[in-house]
Amino acid sequence: MAWRARGSGPAAGGGGDLVERVLGVRAVADRAAFLGPSLLHLHDPSALPGLDRAAERLLAAAKAGEPICIYGDYDVDGITATSILYRMLRAIEPGAQVSTYIPHRVEEGYGLNSAALEEIAAGGAKVVVSVDCGITAVGPAAAAKDAGLDLIITDHHNPPGEGDPVPGCFALVHPRLPGSAYPFGELCGAGVAYKLAWRLATMHNGSDKVADGVRTLLLDLLALAALGTVADVVPLVDENRVIVRFGLSRCTTTEITGLTALINEAGLLGEKIDAEGVGFRLGPMLNASGRMGHAREAVELFITEDRARAAEIARGLVRLNEERRATQLTIYEQACALAEAGGMTGDAKRAIVLAHEDWHPGVVGIVCSRLVETYARPAILMQRRPARDGETIGGGAGGFVCTGSGRSIDGFDLHGAVGACADVFIKEDGGGNVSGGFGGHDVAIGLRMDAACFGRFADAFIERANTGLSPDDLVRTAKYDCDATLAELTPDCVKRLDRLAPFGRSNPGVRLRLRGVRVDGRAEPFGKTGAHLGVRLRQGDAFVRTVAWKWAEHLPRFRSGQLLDVLIEPKVSSWSGRVEPVLVDARESAG
Fold this sequence. Notes:
Elements: E1 2-5, H1 18-25, H2 31-35, H3 51-64, E2 68-71, H4 76-92, E3 98-101, H5 114-122, E4 127-130, H6 138-146, E5 150-154, E6 171-173, H7 189-205, H8 212-231, H9 238-250, H10 257-265, H11 275-292, H12 296-303, H13 307-341, E7 352-356, H14 364-375, E8 379-386, E9 400-407, H15 414-420, E10 427-428, E11 434-435, E12 437-440, E13 444-450, H16 454-468, E14 477-480, E15 482-484, H17 491-497, E16 512-519, E17 524-526, E18 532-539, E19 542-548, E20 563-569, E21 582-588
Parallel strand pairs: 1-14, 2-3, 2-4, 4-5, 5-6, 7-8, 15-16
Antiparallel strand pairs: 8-9, 9-13, 10-11, 12-13, 16-18, 16-20, 17-18, 18-19, 20-21
């Protein structure tokens, strides 16, 4: 693993206060705002393009008793966004007719689809509002209009390129629409939905101030928005940082029955919930509903007031998540073997693009993330399956389609790279029916194509990766903020470093390089199976116990008295109150 400093110059070295050195490396312009975020730092919802028009229509429909359907996505972002809007609409207009619709990941796929919209219209709905999807849904938007629906699209995914069509709808709410003056473009779907819910509350009250009950609800909904923001891996800067900081703190006192049930089943009840807890415990449980079952149950979890039902759903999510883990491991092992056999783990092919009949389409995305971590290159995995009745494909493949997901490394625009290859797999049959499509972000994407196109697409995408990535880009790299000494790692200093949280994309956890530390005594395995190591390190008169997760196989590297350079993540133990850093990597020191 290569080590690389995040910055250079004096801030990356020693000298001066450690917290100030880390802030200097991260080039934080407004340190006071960064270290002391406030709800006042949230931007005015009305500045979002199309938001006021959307809020006016939804509020009018709610007051008039017109049926409203919230159409969401099946991931954590879509689940929380759907729940945010539902709870606000029902709070400000208790008699509002509000329903939710989440497409089935396997049977319907991502985003708005014409058949579902027509079914929703046939059921009596007059207004449909999408959350976390719809920005490229030109065909479904036309179908919604033909069905007599007022369609409101709220989304955050990459909008169509210049000259490409946008959906024709009643209102289009997106922070990065061309010409948008909104000051922050990186909200997730739940963040956009939260802004719409906030504006619904103020518009309903006719004032920027809202009633106490609605104010309490807005704080609770901030907790849901925080879950979506962390799970969708959007940059934790600007107002995303505010949403997550205050939303996660609200999780411990939330009045949302289902959120409390979820926290309880995750074993986090009574504990401080941070971004890591969402990313590794709460988020996977929620995602398991969409991956292995149907995400409508996760939405029900967040909108029900029935404690017994909420507990039942949360227990079910635990079971689904266990099933997801087993399926994920199988696919990962198969994908690794196929990638290595296909030459996709070396310099000749700088991306992994694979398809398999047995791979679960709800799990391939998370396996892509593991492949990116393992091989340091973009990865796209797809399931090859027979086309379903009524499913449009390009023909010539024996009626087979490929559906899947992709993930990327920093610095490689996955959405742009797939778009550059789109002519290989997006076809029209002459009647206006489109076969294939894609959507997502620079680092994550979903796509679907005629199976006959897969080979050509794989070749085109790998060629694109070969052009855009150098061998140096394909090295697993551990980045650190700056050098430090053991003597600096006092409990007070580490707690001050924790003020830089929440950590995530664009604001990673603090990582420090310690040079010339000695192993103090014998490294000790611990854990039920002895998979982890406790390693004592000494530097002069200062010493500390570090924890190396799943490093038991590296025990021989830690000989008593050995001089090492190490990378650590500073932590204070919640049990002992002592500094107990996480050991990230170690190598012999030159002295």
